[in-house]
Amino acid sequence: AFFGCLAFLALDAYFPQISSVKDRKKAVLGDIGFSACWSFLWFVSFCFLTNQWQVTNLAEDNPLKEGADAARAAITFSFFSIFTWAGLAFLGYQRYRLGADSALFSQDYTDPNLDTSVPYVSGDEME
Whole-angstrom Cα distance, residue 74 to residue 53? Predict the structure, then answer.
């Protein structure tokens, strides 16, 4: 997961230089899929760890009560990781929706010189 995050961080930095619409779309869909997959895996991990914690008999299995804090920390980390990865998947989905509605994934070229709208209004025209 860590190396995947680094790869997608590098891809986000390189994203504006990607000229192919298909490659941009693949990058965004890959980001969504990667984040959703890790969110699901952390959910499975959380369910497994909490189930193991629930069925553990501390008096018999661990008479010295060692490692209880580490188990709670692992459960807490996996719980918050679910929302972190789901948030990343949501942000990727927003980027996909933004690209579908704008020129991010557009294959049509519009010449900026043909734009007839006036970008700035002078002071005389405002009154």
Answer: 11
For 110: left if phi > 0, alpha if psi spans -120 to 50, otherwise beta; the answer is beta
* Count of positions (residues) in the chain: 127
What span, in angstroms and rounded, lies between the C-alpha atoms of 46 and 44? 5
Q: Distance between the two ends of the chain, CA-based, in angstroms?
A: 58
Taking the C-alpha atoms of residue 120 and residue 127, their distance in angstroms, rounded to an integer, is 14
Helix (H) / strand (E) element for 76: namely helix 68-101
Sorting pLDDT into bands at 50, 70 and 90, what band is 85? very high
Helix pair angle (21-55, 68-101), 10° resolution: 160
Average pLDDT across the chain, whole number: 80
Backbone angles phi, psi at 13, to 5 degrees: -70, -35
What does the DSSP 8-state code read for residue 49? H
Helices (H), the chain: 2-14, 21-55, 58-61, 68-101, 123-126
What is the per-residue pLDDT across 23-34, written as a single tens digit (0 to 9) for each?
888 888 999 999
